[in-house]
Amino acid sequence: MEKIVKFSTTIRNNWKKSGVGACALAYGASVTKEKYDINILMRAACKEAALYGDALISMERNPTVVTVILNPVANKRSAKKDFEKYCEPLLHLAGLQVDVVQTASEGNAKEIVETLKGLLRRNDEANRFPLGVLPLGRTNKLGNSLFPGGSDNVEKVKQLIDASMAVIKGNTEWKDALKIEQITDGEEAPRPIFAMSSIEWGAFRDTMAKKDKYWFTAGLREYATFIFNGYKDSITWNCSGTLNYTPPCAGCANCVQKKPEPKRKWSFFIPSTQAATVDPKEINPECLKSEELCFKTAEFKIETAAEKQEKPSLKIILGKSSYSYAEFVSEGWDRLKNKPEDKEVISARTVELLPQDPGKEVTIEIDKEEFELKPVKVTILPKVVKLFCLQ
Question: What percent of the chain clears pLDDT 90, i.e. is strictly above it?
Fold first, then answer.
């Protein structure tokens, strides 16, 4: 009893030091538990991957080769460390031959991505090779959609494990893509851009692009971004222009373009990406009907629609025309918490975006890459990219 009283007296007389010590102890316990949970996850994943590595393969079959394109500076230069710690060991244990190509600069990364997206331009079915996405970065929207994860470190490690195991198991699924062509007045148009997720334009996009400026707020950085930018005129508050769009179509002679057969003797081994249920000889009279819409909003998006749709389609998302400071911050915080949003949504097969001249250079995002705003035509390409995914 005397020791308990003495301990209580010491705590009361040194309450500041005691408070700091308690916080440090709680933090240490949290980090220890986090490391323990991650070790449990990795141990189970390694055992599962080793089963694939120990399996016998025929003499005629070569080991599976996986080429990883890694941006070592992504996610504050922790992407390489996370790959080597959580992804690469699983791939090696599964018996895969792993070749890592590290990008030398941001421009180099864009060139490689353009080369991969260029597979969609080819007519020799080169896109039959599956692509994998390891969500090592902070803004990997496609990776997060394929492998849902949380915000804490344990959930992020589980997300990387799921992505690696999808490659090992060979779970694949055909995904839709966006074809984006610049509209020009008689001039030669540049090559089309291909995307997997979305085109974003407006105040919310501009705000999230500035979040790294508020690094000093640590874990509250994204919330602080909306507080500091909700009143600024540098954000694009006025997204206006005209849309010409056609309705979704399951596929007909008007919109299905059959790819020419590759002139190779082994072409019969190559699967067709065209859905077997679509008869391109049929004509849908609604397919070529175009609707025109003039819009003015603070946020504009074009996204691929949810999976398992009867008709492949794009989602045109129009936000509110204006926000007060409090409304903007409140909705921004709700989005960070993944709360559902109330927006006008239009389904379409093709979209011509003709923006009103803003009088200054405006930036949009295509799959989180920044581009200058131009008049463009966006077309849905159904089931053209084979991606590793969960099943």
Answer: 28
Task: Give the tokens for residue 245.
Answer: 């769009």
Tokens 């790294």 found at: 212
CA 5 – CA 264 distance, rounded (Å): 88
Note the helical H segments in 278-366.
325-336
Which phi and psi (to 5°) does residue 138 adopt?
-90, -20
φ, ψ dihedrals at 118, nearest 5°: -65, -15
pLDDT at 21: 59
The span from the CA of 336 to the CA of 135, in Å, is: 18
pLDDT band of 317, cuts 50, 70, 90: very high
Q: Rounded to an integer, what distance in angstroms lies between the CA atom of residue 225 and that of residue 215? A: 10
**Whole-number pLDDT of residue 118:** 58
The dihedrals phi and psi of 357, each to the nearest 5 degrees, come to: -60, 115
Closest CA to 103 of 135, 122, 77: 77
Helix (H/G/I), strand (E/B), else coil: 38: helix
Residues 270-290: what's their mean pLDDT?
A: 58
Q: Is the Cβ–Cβ distance between 245 and 346 less than 8 Å?
A: yes
pLDDT at 5 over 70: no
Helices (H) and strands (E) in the chain, counts: 11, 14
Beta carbons of 244 and 375 less than 8 angstroms apart: no
Which of the two residues, 340 and 19, has the higher pLDDT score? 340
Torsion of CA 133, 135, 141, 147, to 10 degrees: 80
Tokens of 313: 């389609």
Q: How far apart are CA 138 and CA 337, in angstroms?
A: 16
Cβ pair 299, 328 in contact under 8 A: no
8 Å CB contact between 132 and 163: yes
DSSP code at position 360: S
Residue 273 predicted with pLDDT over 50: no
